[in-house]
């Protein structure tokens, strides 16, 4: 690979951009770590607040690194150093993730070393490259092949155009279905994992799937304890067999951190994505998004090249932003709705709202995330546009359940936000609430005293 172009314009300019982003984030991080608040022992809630502040800034630096890379590619305009540019970009991203990890490790007392995280980052990049390779090999290669085959046929131009318009979404679907089929393998490439063998856990997991009328998939634990990453996910297609068999992954210590009801609620949520055909619907919505985004991006590209000259950096950026902005926005909306639907279905299958709420709350705090605000790390990720824990609980819970659940949270975490929420619900819905139900559970949870305090703090209407 030829890196010499980095010393000349425009490579040198963007190399400085990378350096400024990295040094900027490192300086900001070291200042942040000097915050006297960090010297005291932190509650999980306090950790989440501090981490959100740090992650917001890091995401901005990470974005500036990406902008440098894209701008560099456009500014070169056809000069072929893409391989070297991409290698430099990957290196910068790895360095950035190490800076971020230094702070995360300190605040959350993570056991993993910088080397562990490096190997995890490299694994993830390798798997992502494979996945994109697979996608791009399936969709466009098929498309070019089909168009090439069409070119040699004696058909009219109009017919050829019509065929390529229909072909386009079909090819995207083929690409995505291939990725879905391979996804259980990709997850195993990304993270160290083990097949679940504990008979008690296995029978509980299988019972959950039977309850939903689904065939049990293969069950895996992700060995992420020392990284303090906590999650559960399903992947794969029901057509997958052998190594491609549909799989449910849970991080290893989730089984210790959650009580049985909470664990069941999480599993029921995950399998609801399967019984509601969410993966297929997400793929279809991506195709719709591309179909909307392409003409819009083409239009913007035309307008931008009239305004700024064709092939220019600004015209290219405008087109890219239109293309990805529309797609990401569209898919995020679908993902958000699906999360709510999966929660609702989990409750229908027998998860108690309290267990689901408690599990979501725990999961967020275990990952150092706030429960009422989105994690900054997910801002630009279409696949993880999960609503906040608060939004999700509010969606499945009745007003009475909200009060009962939030009383418990307010009691456990002493968070004023929960008390304010309870006060608001009572102020607005007070007379129509099923008070016998609320009082019964408040007594059961020993939060009746808190409820009386809150009630007495509401001024009479
Ligand atoms: Zn989900």
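Q: What amino acid sequence fits the structure above?
A:
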């Amino acid at each position: 690979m030829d890196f010499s172009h980095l010393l000349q314009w425009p490579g040198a300019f963007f190399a400085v951009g990378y350096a400024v982003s990295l040094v900027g984030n490192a300086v900001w991080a070291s200042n942040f770590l000097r915050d006297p608040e960090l010297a005291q022992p932190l509650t999980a809630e306090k950790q989440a607040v501090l981490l959100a502040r740090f992650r917001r800034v890091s995401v901005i630096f990470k974005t500036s690194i990406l902008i440098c890379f894209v701008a560099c590619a456009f500014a070169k305009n056809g000069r072929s150093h893409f391989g070297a540019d991409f290698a430099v970009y990957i290196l910068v991203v790895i360095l950035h993730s190490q800076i971020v990890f230094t702070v995360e490790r300190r605040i959350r007392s993570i056991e993993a070393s910088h080397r562990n995280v490096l190997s995890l980052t490299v694994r993830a990049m390798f798997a992502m490259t494979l996945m994109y390779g697979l996608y791009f090999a399936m969709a466009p290669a098929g498309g070019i092949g089909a168009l090439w085959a069409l070119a040699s046929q004696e058909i009219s131009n109009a017919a050829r155009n019509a065929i390529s318009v229909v072909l386009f979404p079909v090819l995207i679907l083929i690409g995505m279905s291939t990725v879905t089929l391979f996804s259980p393998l990709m997850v195993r490439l990304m993270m160290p994992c083990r097949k679940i063998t504990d008979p008690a856990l296995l029978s509980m997991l299988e019972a959950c799937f039977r309850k939903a009328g689904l065939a049990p998939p293969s069950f895996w634990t992700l060995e992420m304890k020392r990284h303090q990453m906590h999650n559960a996910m399903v992947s794969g297609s029901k057509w997958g067999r052998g190594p491609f068999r549909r799989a449910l992954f849970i991080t290893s210590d989730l089984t210790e951190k959650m009580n049985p009801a909470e664990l069941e609620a999480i599993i029921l949520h995950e399998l609801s994505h399967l019984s509601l055909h969410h993966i297929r619907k997400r793929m279809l919505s991506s195709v719709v998004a591309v179909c909307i985004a392409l003409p819009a991006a083409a239009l913007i590209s035309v307008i931008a090249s009239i305004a700024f000259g064709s092939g220019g950096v600004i015209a290219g950026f405008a087109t890219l932003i239109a293309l990805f902005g529309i797609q990401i926005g569209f898919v995020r909306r679908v993902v958000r709705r699906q999360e709510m639907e999966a929660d609702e279905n989990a409750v229908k299958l027998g998860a108690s709202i309290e267990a689901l709420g408690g599990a979501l709350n725990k999961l967020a705090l275990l990952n150092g995330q706030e429960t009422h605000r989105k994690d900054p790390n997910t801002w630009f990720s279409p696949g993880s546009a999960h609503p906040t824990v608060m939004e999700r609980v509010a969606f499945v819970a009745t007003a009475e359940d909200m009060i009962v659940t939030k009383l418990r949270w307010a009691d456990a975490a002493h968070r004023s936000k929960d008390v304010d929420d309870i006060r608001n619900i009572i102020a607005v819905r007070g007379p129509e609430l099923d008070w016998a139900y609320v009082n019964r559970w408040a007594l059961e949870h020993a939060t009746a005293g808190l409820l009386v305090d809150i009630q007495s703090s509401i001024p009479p209407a």
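Q: And what stands out in the fold?
A: Residues 269, 273, 339, 342 surround zinc ion (CB under 6 Å).
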